[in-house]
């Protein structure tokens, strides 16, 4: 017994060393695993920002149907009489952030029952001019194009209707004076100025606790600066307070409805009027605010949307990258990256923010167990 006694401590020390070695190696392996995983996730997330896999191919979309809104919609103000123009005052093409070419946009408008459309790409009239040319060549006498642009900045979005030259947006946050200069320039070019979707501009920017467009001029200011009207319906939203404001100033302002179409989806509204001639000039004449504008311009609204929506085919890139993108989307659960409203001047209107969702890191416990 006495010979065995001294061996006991050395046996314990050796097993302690072994245990230490074991956990050290295990620790290193787990660490490697985490590092490899992090690199893999980083690569996936990087690819997600780099690969532009267009989900749907709108160049091939067909609109084989025709809608007759007059057959099931009545004007907002039912005293409004007969009308022959169904106008969309707000739309986008591939000349800005729209997904349809001017030609596709026109075909969609015709199939949705419009016979007039203002093409108002962000910061440029080129989309509108291209749409006008397309109609001259393909659909003359069937639909009227009003070329225009959406003056887009971090304070306000305004449509300039019926201009043939781009009015420059001088900065993401123009001064009051810059805005007045732009409004005057649009008038000089023979255009009308419509203030867009105030309900959207003033609603909260998610994650920032400020409106989407900070420092938006008030309606009273805009009236004073000479704007001609307000978009009271945008997509399927009816902005009642703005409509009431227009009604309080009927000889100075017109209320219009716009789809703000960016890609084929439901359309919801039509600006309606009766004109003597089927021309751009006759429509613009009617839209111009006057004592009788309110009686001569109204709108139709179907909040449930049009019955027919054309579906576009997926691109081949979509099939190739979807599994990879689904995986990287999963890893995006661990953080939220916010950039704020896009200024359309190459920048964003709010500072960017990344928020880590630490509670999501609980999944690392599971990895521990797998490694053991
Ligand atoms: C642009 O519009 C102005 C004002 O309406 C007009 O005088 C001019 O001829 C137009 N220019 C072109 C190229 O259409
Ligand atoms: C419209 O005018 C009435 C009467 O002057 C006023 O009480 C109301 O606040 C105004 N509404 C809007 C939206 O400007
Ligand atoms: C309608 O067309 C006629 C004949 O071209 C023209 O004289 C008249 O000014 C036009 N009216 C409007 C409002 O465009
Ligand atoms: C409808 O329009 C008429 C004049 O055209 C006006 O007198 C009336 O107040 C309007 N009704 C509503 C509900 O806006
Ligand atoms: C400019 C114009 O045509 N105004 C007309 C608007 O509607 C009223 C009532 O229907 C007509 O009397 C006006 O001539």
UniProtKB/TrEMBL annotation:
The keyword Transmembrane helix applies. Keywords: Membrane, Transmembrane, Transmembrane helix. The chain crosses the membrane at residues 26-47. Pfam families: PHP (PF02811). GO terms for molecular function: 5'-3' DNA exonuclease activity; 5'-3' RNA exonuclease activity. Residues 87-155 form the Polymerase/histidinol phosphatase N-terminal domain. The keyword Transmembrane applies. This is Polymerase/histidinol phosphatase N-terminal domain-containing protein. It comes from Furculomyces boomerangus.
């Amino acid at each position: 017994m006495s010979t065995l006694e001294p061996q006991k401590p050395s046996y314990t020390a050796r097993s302690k060393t072994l245990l230490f070695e074991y956990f050290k190696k295990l620790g290193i392996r787990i660490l490697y695993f985490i590092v490899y995983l992090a690199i893999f996730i980083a690569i996936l997330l990087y690819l997600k920002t780099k690969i532009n896999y267009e989900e749907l191919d709108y160049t091939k979309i067909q609109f084989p149907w025709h809608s007759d809104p007059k057959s099931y919609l009545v004007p907002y103000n039912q005293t409004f009489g007969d009308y022959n123009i169904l106008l969309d005052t707000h739309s986008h093409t591939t000349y800005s952030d729209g997904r349809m070419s001017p030609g596709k946009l026109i075909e969609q408008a015709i199939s949705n029952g419009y016979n007039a459309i203002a093409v108002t790409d962000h910061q440029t009239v080129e989309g509108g001019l291209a749409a006008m040319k397309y109609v001259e060549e393909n659909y003359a006498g069937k639909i009227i194009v009003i070329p225009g642009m959406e003056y887009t900045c971090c304070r306000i979005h305004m449509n300039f209707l019926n201009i043939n030259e781009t009015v420059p947006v001088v900065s993401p946050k123009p001064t009051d004076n810059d805005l007045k200069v732009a409004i005057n320039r649009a008038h000089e070019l023979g255009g009308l100025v419509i203030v867009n979707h105030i309900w959207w501009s003033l609603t909260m920017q998610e994650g920032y606790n400020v409106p989407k467009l900070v420092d938006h001029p008030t309606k009273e200011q805009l009236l004073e600066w000479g704007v001609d009207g307000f978009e009271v319906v945008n997509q399927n939203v009816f902005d009642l307070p703005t409509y009431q404001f227009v009604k309080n100033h009927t000889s100075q302002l017109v209320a219009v409805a716009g789809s703000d179409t960016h890609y084929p989806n439901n359309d919801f509204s039509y600006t309606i009027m009766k004109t003597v001639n089927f021309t751009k000039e006759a429509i613009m004449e009617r839209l111009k605010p006057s004592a009788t504008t309110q009686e001569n311009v109204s709108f139709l609204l179907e909040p449930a949307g049009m019955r027919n929506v054309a579906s576009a085919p997926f691109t081949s890139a979509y099939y190739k990258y979807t599994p990879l993108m689904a995986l990287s989307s999963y890893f995006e659960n661990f953080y939220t990256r916010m950039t704020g409203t896009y200024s359309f001047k190459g920048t964003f209107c709010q500072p960017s923010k990344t928020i880590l969702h630490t509670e999501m890191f609980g999944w690392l416990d599971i990895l521990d167990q797998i490694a053991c």
